[in-house]
Design brief:
Rossmann fold; eleven-stranded mixed sheet; six-stranded parallel sheet; 17 strands; disordered N terminus; binds nicotinamide-adenine-dinucleotide
Length: 455
């Protein structure tokens, strides 16, 4: 340090060296909110009966989650592969009314709601049919496969007075609610940047699921699977590894971006689709016939902030995170179970960089005046690190259950769900914008008046 420059001790007293003094982050265990589902026995008149449509990986998880809530009974299932009709009954622990034609479910008057967990290209049609039949719907994310479908679903929910919960569970998570509270308290200051990613590096993470030995044209209703998608010959990879094909899914955005976006929208209270999206990436490794990329990086523009989202199926060293950068602090999620708030050290500091080039006399005068204008805070109160907090959910916390209970409460009370179709449409459109930009090699712009993506 130059002879006449400010001493290290002085510098610390002025606050600039505060990060050297801190203690490690305090961990705050979040308290679960009172369970929505009543712990009291549910009277028979309030029991809810449901059917599941699409009981693959997620459909079986969803039905099991619904059955953990009190006063809920499963009575029917629809799926296109015989073995999934069997799997659903095993998960329900009882014999169910089974069908490959989901419309038959809507003939039953005793069903209050349906869970829709099919491939994405079937969501909109089934949800609209369910609304018209007077059923409430828990629909898996992403809500839609194509932009116009979202407005159709919103219209159907309004027309038939139905409750729809879209299945991005972060929307009901106590951790994201805490993060929202931190943001709304002003602790982050002005947020201008967010970055988030989910990275993986294994065949399951890249959607290369095993093909079951009993799957064939007799056990799977292939024509029904295709629905409105282009007619192609029977193909087991397309049926079981559908996420790789844009005919049935929305690729990395529909599978993974949507979770990150749901969290970001929830914390920051974002409304509406992003203004713009620019994507880059490619299909670099998993060239097994799919048309979806295995790396996608999208920069979104929202009013007053830029959001960067990445999913990489070729390296998992960075795992998963969301980071929210504000002028007063940073909130970083380690995973879905914990998040750390770190304040920025924004206390005033004497300018050093340019002042070093001043003549000695001027420098000393500047520093002397600065010290006079900024009385030193006591040393034991200057550590920014002491304000670092890690928030953690309890070990047995289940955000899937919280999201399902929120839906069941809405079905019973007719109070809006945490993630109704308007919200589900915003994040779905954000996914479609990422894909539009990638596949068309253009900047995707949301046209609010025309309700469509344009260049
Ligand atoms: N919220 C989450 O964390 C989460 C996790 C995984 C999947 N998902 C979503 O859940 C949905 C399903 O994903 P998955 O991994 O369970 O897929 P999957 O392939 O394991 O299961 C989909 C099932 O839907 C059935 N199906 C398709 N069209 C049908 C129709 N018209 N009628 C009846 N059944 C039909 C298929 O036969 C298949 O068994 C997707 O939209 C996916 O994005 C959400």
């Amino acid at each position: 340090m130059a002879e006449n420059s400010i001493s290290r001790r002085d510098f610390m007293r002025m606050g600039a060296g505060a990060t050297l003094i801190g203690s490690s982050a305090q961990v705050v265990l979040l308290e679960p909110a009172k369970a929505l589902a009543s712990p009291q026995p549910i009277p028979p008149s309030d029991r809810l009966r449901f059917a599941s449509i699409g009981t693959g990986v997620r459909g079986c998880e969803d039905l099991s989650t619904a059955l953990r809530a009190p006063g809920v009974e499963m009575v029917a299932v629809s799926d296109l592969w015989d073995s999934r009709l069997t799997a659903a009954q095993e998960h329900a622990g009882k014999k169910l009314d089974t069908t490959k034609d989901y419309r038959r479910i809507f003939d039953r008057k005793d069903i209050d709601f349906v869970i829709v967990a099919t491939m994405d290209h079937w969501h909109a049609k089934i949800v609209e049919d369910a609304c018209a039949a007077g059923k409430d719907v828990y629909c898996e994310k992403p809500m839609t496969h194509k932009v116009p479908e979202g407005f159709g679903i919103i219209g159907a929910a309004q027309k038939y007075g139905r409750m729809i919960q879209v299945g991005s569970q972060r929307r009901s998570s106590m951790l994201f609610a805490k993060a929202k509270e931190i943001y709304e308290s002003g602790a982050l200051g002005q947020v201008t940047a967010v970055e988030a990613w989910i990275d993986r590096n294994d065949s399951s993470g890249a959607w290369v699921y095993p093909i079951p030995p009993d799957a064939n044209e007799n056990t799977i209703d292939w024509q029904q699977f295709l629905g409105d998608a282009p007619k192609v010959p029977f193909n087991l990879k397309r049926f079981f590894r559908w996420r790789g094909y844009s005919d049935y899914g929305a690729g990395l955005p529909g599978d993974l971006f949507v979770h990150l976006l749901t969290g970001i929208y929830t914390i920051l209270g974002l409304e509406g689709p992003p203004q713009k999206a620019v994507s880059a990436g490619g299909l670099y490794r998993w060239k097994d016939g799919r048309d979806e990329p295995d790396l996608l990086w999208t920069l979104y523009t929202f009013p007053g902030m830029t959001v960067s989202i990445r999913c990489n199926l070729n390296n998992q060293s960075q795992g998963e995170t969301t980071r929210i950068f504000g002028t007063k602090g940073t909130l970083e999620f380690q995973d879905e179970e914990s998040a750390t708030f770190t304040p920025e050290d924004t206390r005033p500091q004497p300018e050093q960089y340019s002042v070093e080039s001043w003549p000695k006399k001027l420098r000393e005068e500047y520093w002397a005046k600065w010290k006079q204008d900024h009385p030193a805070p006591p040393l034991d109160s200057v550590s920014v690190l002491e304000q670092v907090r890690t928030y953690r959910v309890p070990n047995d916390y289940d955000e899937d259950l919280a999201h399902m209970e929120n839906f069941l409460d809405a079905v019973r009370t007719r109070k809006p769900c945490d993630e109704g179709p308007v919200f589900g449409n915003w994040t779905a459109i954000a996914c479609h914008m990422a894909n539009y930009s990638y596949f068309n090699k253009v900047e995707a712009v949301w046209d609010e008046q025309a309700k469509e993506i344009r260049t």
